[in-house]
Amino acid sequence: MxxxxxIEGTLGKAFGVLGGYIAASAVLVDFVxxxxxxxxxxxxxxxxxxxxxxTSVTHLKKSAVDRQRHQERAASLKRRxxxxxxxxxxxxxxxxxxxxxxxxxxxxxxxxxxxxxxxxINYPTVPRGTERLRLTPSPLHVDADMDRLIEALKAIWARLxxxxxx
Length: 166
Prior knowledge:
With 166 residues, this protein is mainly alpha-helical. Helix content is 47%, strand content 10%. The protein is built from six helices and five strands; from the N terminus they run ββααααβαββα. Helix 4 packs parallel to helix 6 (143-159). It starts with 6 loop residues before the first strand and ends in a 7-residue tail after the last helix.
């Protein structure tokens, strides 16, 4: 266990496409392709998705501007959330937590009442009772976008009688 045998990554979120990859020996890749239930019925990425992934990787290798802006936007949203008394998991990531039991209700309210789509993280991705809201600002979100989200969350928290963060 003193060396890396598999590298796994996603082409979603940071690269703006979908799918993922593993890099390993040909034997290990073939084993995963043959026995991992997620891969058994999967085919190769469509050419347009592969081209999008290649373009994204090429761009991000040449420029750190988007990565830096993304990190700044995530930190800014976290500060705004804290100032509004909304809960968060302490971490260096952009994942912000709502009340686990009401995660779905909050995301439904955001979409139905405010036209804001937030992807909840539900079981089996996380253990039951730890459902979360994934608030992921992009480098293109501006302060007004984040203010609108925070105001919507504050209104939903008040409407659902949720307790502010301690």
